[in-house]
């Protein structure tokens, strides 16, 4: 048996023992002692030191006694293993107080190897003083003679969780690893190899500074390795290939470079370079043979490029001599990446140095190129600008003339007496425009008027009329060959299709408008940016969300520097869709960006601010913060009633959100009242069968099921499911409605649920929020219990 197999056998046997009841462990150890007494002895001591009940070793099954250390007060345990424990302690130095992490070996774990490791860790830490390494504060023995060491206490969280919870950018993640690599390089200069670098051993403190911890299996380069019966207590997922060999105890600085590469890879991709592998033998095989996929292909972060791919690949090379020569070399390459300089990992790649030089010197190069091509570029741009200016001037003049026409079409008597309403004037003016278009009037001047009137109808909530006028405008512009006007009209048609709950039409018209603009090279206009933002929404609405996120990222980058209002609106829309798709953290990050940008807006936008606040409430619920969600949605309800009035249909969506949040909290009375209010408002103010109305009706049925009112819930849910149709749901609520319907049928008819395979897509849908998943799981269990009786 080689060292790797011996290590795995000891590890697996220990976990097998933990799975047994305490009284059965003695028999297991007795059987093992007959065939492998040394292994049985090691396992017995591990159990005792970990505080595991074992009658033969500890008749009371009690926890090991607390260490008694002079000048220290133990506050709480920070962690434990088979060999010892770590405490958060307060050290008294006269009137001064200092919080430390106090580490102690357990008496029962005192093997010769463990003693030597502990003593060596103290010697190593005593020689290290670096701002990114937790420093040794004190060492000695407790009242019982057990050795201990105390290091500075790092009040923070492990590096991977810190990056996830703060939504750290690629640059911030690289900066963190660069600092850790510099700390490791410092340790290497002190002839110390860490050998167990992993996210759990890198904490980021409250100042955002990473701290390297736990030199428990570190060693001096000039010192012989401590011999063991296996490969030693390393962490497989971050172990270098050479550490898994029989000579792994002698692995040098290259193993730390490899581990740094593995941690960097995980921070960039959220995945292991070895793939989704848990079985130890399969993991060892992957470490030895599998090449990691390029991070840029897996990462959802913006900015992971070919240079970072090359840096990770070089750090993770299988052969130590092919990696970076030192942790310092890795840190230097990361610094070069941060400075947008050429990285050594791509040295020798054809044309790379030239491209990197251009990337750094692009302002100079761009200036030379711009000067040499200025005349041609200027002429083309001026022509385009003049054409756009002429169009806008014609639109402005046409709209101004139309406002006068609105009053002319009303009878003089009504106009002078003030009896004519805005709606009547608008309708009469609309008929006049349509007549002119039918008689062959100038489409170039009539199209912008049709679109202006369509947008007024949209503001008044008359979306069918607005879509009809926009469609006429698109047809007229197309007949005249005016591509820009046609694309603008198609955007309006798509927008009205969205309001009318017709996602396929929204996507089709948007896609047509994008292709028209690209056909004439209009890819830098505001209209094009607006259209590709809508294209991302369209992909989501037709069930192809994976195509949406890259487009959204591109649009955000472009809008941030060209149109702040559209930038904020785009972030808001994208965040809402991300939350709907179950991308809770992505959605909340985009909303925070929108919220931070609102002070840079040219003018206040109350409707948009309400939408941001509503989506932030939704994000809080999605991320398991229901109390915050309720507080936020109540605040937006108050703002909405002030801005729109208490009877406006826009409030229906807010009431639906309030109902969902209350349902998640178990407040069924509030949930039912909010869902009823949403249904009443939507039924009165929106077209029949509108999605918001259906959502409210579905929530009413879901709440009735949760209250046990199955007889009332059944017809509600049957009507909602029929209205949804047979297509795959894009939003999470239809999944919940399907399971609620089956729960009601089961309760009323005392019949079992449909085949599990039929319900499985609804129970396991990726975009279900955690509270929704708990709800449907409980319903399923409740129905199973009912039918069992």
Automatic annotation (TrEMBL):
<feature type="domain" description="Protein kinase">
    <location>
        <begin position="72"/>
        <end position="338"/>
    </location>
</feature>
<keyword id="KW-1133">Transmembrane helix</keyword>
<dbReference type="InterPro" id="IPR011990">
    <property type="entry name" value="TPR-like_helical_dom_sf"/>
</dbReference>
<keyword id="KW-0547">Nucleotide-binding</keyword>
<feature type="transmembrane region" description="Helical">
    <location>
        <begin position="362"/>
        <end position="380"/>
    </location>
</feature>
<dbReference type="InterPro" id="IPR000719">
    <property type="entry name" value="Prot_kinase_dom"/>
</dbReference>
<protein>
    <submittedName>
        <fullName>Serine/threonine protein kinase</fullName>
    </submittedName>
</protein>
<dbReference type="InterPro" id="IPR017441">
    <property type="entry name" value="Protein_kinase_ATP_BS"/>
</dbReference>
<keyword id="KW-0067">ATP-binding</keyword>
<dbReference type="Pfam" id="PF00069">
    <property type="entry name" value="Pkinase"/>
</dbReference>
<keyword id="KW-0418">Kinase</keyword>
<keyword id="KW-0472">Membrane</keyword>
<dbReference type="InterPro" id="IPR008271">
    <property type="entry name" value="Ser/Thr_kinase_AS"/>
</dbReference>
<keyword id="KW-0723">Serine/threonine-protein kinase</keyword>
<dbReference type="GO" id="GO:0004674">
    <property type="term" value="F:protein serine/threonine kinase activity"/>
</dbReference>
<dbReference type="InterPro" id="IPR011009">
    <property type="entry name" value="Kinase-like_dom_sf"/>
</dbReference>
<feature type="binding site">
    <location>
        <position position="103"/>
    </location>
    <ligand>
        <name>ATP</name>
    </ligand>
</feature>
<keyword id="KW-0808">Transferase</keyword>
<keyword id="KW-0812">Transmembrane</keyword>
